[in-house]
Amino acid sequence: MKPVAFNNNVLRDGHQSLAATRMPTELMLPACPILDSMGFNALETWGGASIDAGLRFLGEFPFDRLDTLKKACPKTKHMMLFRGQNIVAYTHFPDDVVEAFVNCSARHGMDIFRIFDALNDTRNMECAIRAVNKAGKEAQGAICYTKSPVDTIERFVKMGCELAELGCGSIAIKDMAGLIPPHIVYDIVSGLKKNIKVPVVVHTHETAGMGAPSYYAAVEAGADVIDTSIAPFANGTGQPDTARMLAVLEDNPRKPDYDTKKLLQLREIFQDIYNKLGFYTDLKNEVIDTDALIYQVPGGMLSNFRVQLKEQKMEDKFDEVFAEVPYVREKLGWIPLVTPTSQIVGTQAMMNVKFGRWKMFTPQAMDIALGYYGRTPAPVDPEVKKLAQEKSGKEPITARPADLKGPGMEELRKALAAKGIKNDDEHCVIYAMFPQQLEDLYTKPREFYKLKSPKDKIPACPPPAEAAAKGPQKLKISIDGQERSVTVEKL
Amino acid sequence: MKPVAFNNNVLRDGHQSLAATRMPTELMLPACPILDSMGFNALETWGGASIDAGLRFLGEFPFDRLDTLKKACPKTKHMMLFRGQNIVAYTHFPDDVVEAFVNCSARHGMDIFRIFDALNDTRNMECAIRAVNKAGKEAQGAICYTKSPVDTIERFVKMGCELAELGCGSIAIKDMAGLIPPHIVYDIVSGLKKNIKVPVVVHTHETAGMGAPSYYAAVEAGADVIDTSIAPFANGTGQPDTARMLAVLEDNPRKPDYDTKKLLQLREIFQDIYNKLGFYTDLKNEVIDTDALIYQVPGGMLSNFRVQLKEQKMEDKFDEVFAEVPYVREKLGWIPLVTPTSQIVGTQAMMNVKFGRWKMFTPQAMDIALGYYGRTPAPVDPEVKKLAQEKSGKEPITARPADLKGPGMEELRKALAAKGIKNDDEHCVIYAMFPQQLEDLYTKPREFYKLKSPKDKIPACPPPAEAAAKGPQKLKISIDGQERSVTVEKL
To answer: What confidence score (pLDDT) does residue A475 get?
Structure first.
């Protein structure tokens, strides 16, 4: 039996999950030589929210980070999370933009593209898979795990087979909410191992306290690779810690061999970074979220929910709104609860309870009902679809959403030229997703980011948000032995 | 396949692990009818540190708590943790005291006595097992899990067989440090299931993040019962949460059926208690302890270690002292690292590094070397034993330590009478273990405990310890370039 291999996700999902994606490239560098020497299957260094957050908050041009990390970790394969036709943003982009992004990333050294679609609609993944293969890199097809009557083991296995046929070099089970139970991941992995030849990778989060047991079961079922991170950017809302997974696999014939002394060094480096990012971290993220467990929804969804209910003065309706969630999911074709669908479903459930079912039909929910996000796992309820059509005045579509879009690169190139910003492919693809943020990068002074950067803005306790919330503070101050009553307010 | 059953440990180990054993009986009562209606295999309600802490800090006479909880939870079996010949204290007691304690507890309604010995010396458990059987109750023999070259799977299984032969009605694997890896618990449970007929119970802690995966493996191997708790007195340094374990067993043919709505109610009740005990809780206890994982020692031992090293001004010697731990363990016969042996080993390792090996031989370590704690898992090094004999002037023993003691009850009865305190068996056995504390109970005013009681001493945030540490602060401030000495105090 071959040992299971570990990916290490600390440089992307680790700080995305535990420090609001705020780790600047510069702080990552001391860890790079060690990370690169460990023999990990891959280092997840890019993609997901890290491109948006790096550009928006840290003022980093995304391809610069990739270049720097590739140079600092030249031996290990680099991996990125890729949202299919959404690339690393939130809407569908034309095929030529997706292709250009893939080509640029490949050119800058990206090795493995983990591609998923929030609706598990493989049509939204095809263009990216093709482009990655054409660039000679590895397309990893990801299956988003979600629980619903239509999401059976067979269906997930079938999707994996389909992705393998589409040319994926590996298949990932992506459990973004950390809700996959061990027995179910065991069955999916077993099913995939029986039916496909490419490696099977499992990705989960410890949010609900099921990460490690599910990895254990996945390894027993023959998973080839699992995603781990480095504490304190691990466990809780992040991936299980590497040292912890080694301990969990103690005495297991599939236990891999990673240097624990180096892991200790890495832990010290990341603890130091964690302390520097103090402002963006929260010990609560490291504690098992019992609510997520009990309500069986992604952790983030519940807290959003509570905030929204409070804004709407509907706190007393929590149970009612919560009971409406599966109804909305069912009517909208059992869409998974992942960003952005979790927010769309949550908001619609709230509107249904407040105003009556579908009286307030949000534009996003209508778009889902009409096919503008792609093919839902089950058919949308015909009545609901009809209502969406009437209310929105839009026609339902069955085609791949991106098919409605013409090529986009030429226009992007012109727009950048008009603004006097460099208009190579790298800038075009970033501009497509984050136009304002890219413009800011070239027009705002560095102070604009310095203020946003945790490096320069890590406050002493309490963090400014809290201090601001508290407002001016009254203090008793003794100056040179003379007592004064003083009001202090942070400027 | 029979479903696995759950014990619920929230009323004993839950708050012992996560709130310094400070939950008063009164606060437990609202949860009792629900806990009692769930169909748990047993409720752990007594024993371990809860008897000492309840008496010492809350001013509760231990048998009163048992009476109250038995009355509040009449349907479910009650379970207690019992330290063999140490009863619920830290030294060896005469057999008649052990027997009297068992008889009193049985009379007050205790059903299952989980009996262990810190050295896994079954001779230290025999008297208690016999007494429990004689009282017509269930003796559960516990195997302390520890890692050492002599502690093999076979040895643990053999100990389980021996305990079953001694008359135990069930066998528990007690992983007090939360360090048992899934594959090892799988093998021990499998071995026990093959060789003994009585139920096999597994007890662990989530401290190092291995609790849930190890339970999962134990269930796969056929464990009959596992210990769970209720969040927030669960996970972290405590047992995995009940709702979480149900989620982990989702789709597993051995998943038991416990009412999740009632679990939600329990969670709300215990969250409320947790908030009231705020002063004694620490979010850090709920976060996975990566140090415990990396150093493979009980979580509590490391923090004690650091405090002691600091006191001795030996912080720079951490690695050296730490490397000395396995040496000391080996020479002392590979004793497990459990209270009190973890402290004894840690202190001796520190002394060895500071003064040279065995130059300062602590009395406790000498007693272990000479057999006064019982039979060590492996023989004590002859040179070390000889040295202990010379330095202490004491003879080594091979007999069961309690055999050196004459009967104790008569003397206890007289001593209590002389003090004018009730001298029934209940008072005698408590007086044997906690003489000063029992005396305090009858002589100190209630304010003595009110001051200690979390109920009356729960401060607003921040807790007093922290506030005191902050105190008035002296600062050097430069105002308009002029330096001033300033004292600041929060009002």
So the answer is: 52
pLDDT of residue A292: 78
- The H-or-E segment that residue A228 falls in is strand A225-228
Residue B202 has, within 13 A of its CA and on its CB side, a CA count of: 35
> Cα(A199)–Cα(A226) distance, rounded to whole angstroms?
11
Give A205 to chain B, closest Cα distance, Å.
Answer: 13
Closest residue in A to B474 (Cα) is: A478
Residues 268-297 of B with CB under 8 A from A: 283-284, 286-288, 290, 293-294, 296
For position A459, what pLDDT does the model report? 24
Model pLDDT, residue B288:
86
Residue range A61-69: mean pLDDT, rounded: 98
Q: Cβ of A244 and B184 within 8 Å?
A: no
Work out the minimum CA distance from B183 to partner chain A, whole angstroms.
6
Q: How far apart are the C-alpha atoms of B127 and B144, rounded to whole Å?
A: 18
Q: What is the pTM of this model?
A: 0.87
Cβ atoms of residues B24 and B279 within 8 Å: no
Query: Does residue A108 have a pLDDT over 50?
Result: yes
Whether A389 and chain B come into contact, CB under 8 Å, resolves to no
State whether residue A184 sits within 8 Å of chain B by CB: yes
Max Cα separation, chain A?
81
Which of A212, A213, A478 has the CB atom closest to B486's CB atom? Answer: A478
Average pLDDT over residues A204-218: 96
Closest CA to B371 of B394, B397, B405: B397
Beta pairing, strands B473-479 & B170-174:
unpaired
Provide the sign of the torsion angle of the four alpha carbons B259, B260, B261, B264, taken in this order: positive
Instruction: Closest CB to A286: pick one of B181, B248, B287.
Output: B287
Q: H or E segment at A486?
A: strand A482-488
Confidence of residue B462 (pLDDT cuts 50, 70, 90): very low
Q: Which domains are seen in chain B, by residue range?
A: 5-285 (3.20.20.70), 297-402 (1.10.472.90)
* A232/B290 CB distance under 8 A: yes
Let me know the angle formed at the C-alpha of A365 by A163 and A406, rounded to the nearest 5 degrees: 60
Q: Nearest by CB to B294, which of A182, A217, A243?
A: A243
DSSP helix, strand, coil percent of chain B (3-state; round to 5): 50, 10, 35
- Please name the member of A213, A247, A250 whose beta carbon is closest to the beta carbon of B212: A213
Q: With beta carbons under 8 A apart, name residues in chain B contacting A216.
A: 182, 213, 216-217
Report the complex ipTM: 0.84
- Closest-CA distance, B268 to chain A, in angstroms, reads 11
Of A179, A290, A474, the CB nearest to B241: A290
Please, what is the average pLDDT of chain A?
90
pLDDT tens digits, one per residue of B228-259 = 999 999 999 999 999 999 999 999 999 999 99
- Are B76 and B35 in contact by the 8 Å Cβ rule? The answer is yes
Query: CA B376 to CA A223: how far, in whole Å?
Result: 41
The pLDDT confidence band at residue A488, using thresholds 50, 70 and 90, is: very low
Tokens of A478: 């003794």
Chain A residue whose CA is closest to B293: A244
Q: How far apart are CA B114 and CA B125, in angstroms?
A: 10
Q: Which chain B residues are within 8 Å of A283, Cβ to Cβ?
A: 283-284, 287
- SS3 per-residue string spanning A400-457: CHHHHCCCCHHHHHHHHHHCCCCCCHHHHHHHHHCHHHHHHHHHCCCHHHHHHCHHHH
Nearest to B186 by CA among B199, B173, B169: B173
Pairing of strands A482-488, B225-228: unpaired
